[in-house]
Amino acid sequence: MVYDVVVIGAGAAGLMCAAQAGYAGRRVLIIDHANKAGKKILMSGGGRCNFTNLGTTPQHFYSENPYFCISALKRYRPEHFVELVDRHGVEYVEKAPGQLFCATSAKEIVRVLWTECEWAGVEVKLNTQITKVVRQGEGMRLSTSIGVIDAGVVVVASGGLSIPTMGATGFGYELARQFGLEVLPTRAGLVPFTLSDFWKDRSAKLSGVSLPVAVSCAGRRFVEPMLFTHRGLSGPSMLQISSVWQPGSPIEIDLLANENAADSLREARKITPKRQLSTWLGERFPKRFAQALLEWYPDSNQLKPLAQYSNDELDQWAGRLNQWQLKPAGTEGWRTAEVTMGGVNTDAISSKTFEVKDLPQLRFIGEVLDVTGELGGYNFQWAWASGVACGQAC
Ligand code: FDA
């Protein structure tokens, strides 16, 4: 079997790239070891796929080389993908500012990509294992479970390590190393935190409670909801900060992101001196959480009116509310992570064509590269943009 382009991985980036290469007149084959294309798309966004973010900028991505993503993102923008889904009659909603989700199901996005591949004449082989990839003359040769395949260009779109049960493997990293490329250390990103000891028990008791917070770590701050779980902390704010968190370091949670608790408590003591702290907390937090706070810090006599609180006591409470320092035990890891931080070092890759600089027959796109987006549709936008740039250049 001989193809101009063989794409490894029928995920977001691979399908997009294959369709573009097909439209450019190339004979294209996609190979995936999974039994279905786009499995991660199907499970994304709670089954509704947050397929882009209208506010995408390079600043929404982590990479050793923050400039690498600029060119592709500039050339293929969120409006282009919106135009594509419009053309296929997909209905969508803007759930949060800029975050577009399918109105019905993520299946719609797979349908769009699958149809585009069909129209572009792309062949797809699922349930296919790749055992070897080597250089062969001017091209590449793949040994697979369906035989030997020769390709002018091999595009590696095999994704990251998250959710191994969905077909994630380290294949792309191994291939990169085989061809002498550096793979930057990988770790789970956009992943819930686990807690240990009494914080784990406390969190488990509050499981299901969600509240808006601002969380900070390593110079980053995110203002989004936090969710208590049986194992620790999740919700958009925690997923976001997990991407910059290093094991062993604390995170700081501001439970009253828009309020200076010290000022408010002093003000309340002046205006409503007979009020109890529990009432003040109850006005700001879900009932279960307000109650839990009083249990966590037993120094607070629940019957004591605010008038009897000293400045020091109020400041202590303000610190607990505005600067809650917590050391996560770890994260839930690859089992639930949405993305992989790190990956193939972009230094060796062209940001225009995605080819390996001294081996243009080999290309890497999507999440396998050391480019990772924040939460909110940015990761798919990267998959589309890198896929289009590479596919058009194949
Ligand atoms: P992707 O993982 O999509 O595809 C890789 C493909 O390669 C897979 O089909 C896999 O089977 C195949 N493969 C792997 N190893 C192989 C091998 N050895 N041989 C052959 N094939 C192989 N992002 C976002 O922007 N909005 C969202 O709503 C979400 N939601 C979300 C939820 C959950 C639960 C997860 C896990 C992730 C998200 N994401 C997301 C992230 C997003 O899914 C991710 O960034 C993209 O799917 C990456 O696209 P890729 O094509 O690079 O990899």
Automatic annotation (TrEMBL):
Domain RsdA/BaiN/AoA(So)-like Rossmann fold-like: start-end pairs: 4-392
Cofactor list: FAD
Alphabetical list of Pfam families matching this protein: HI0933_like, HI0933_like_1st
Keyword Flavoprotein: yes
SUPFAM superfamilies given in the database record: FAD/NAD(P)-binding domain, HI0933 insert domain-like
Taxonomic lineage of the native organism: Bacteria, Pseudomonadati, Pseudomonadota, Gammaproteobacteria, Oceanospirillales
InterPro entries on file: BaiN-like, BaiN-like_dom_sf, FAD/NAD-bd_sf, RsdA/BaiN/AoA(So)-like_dom, RsdA/BaiN/AoA(So)_Rossmann
PANTHER family according to UniProt: OS12G0638800 PROTEIN
Domain RsdA/BaiN/AoA(So)-like insert: 187-339
Record carries keyword RNA-binding: no
Native species: Halomonas colorata
Protein name, as recorded: NAD(P)/FAD-dependent oxidoreductase
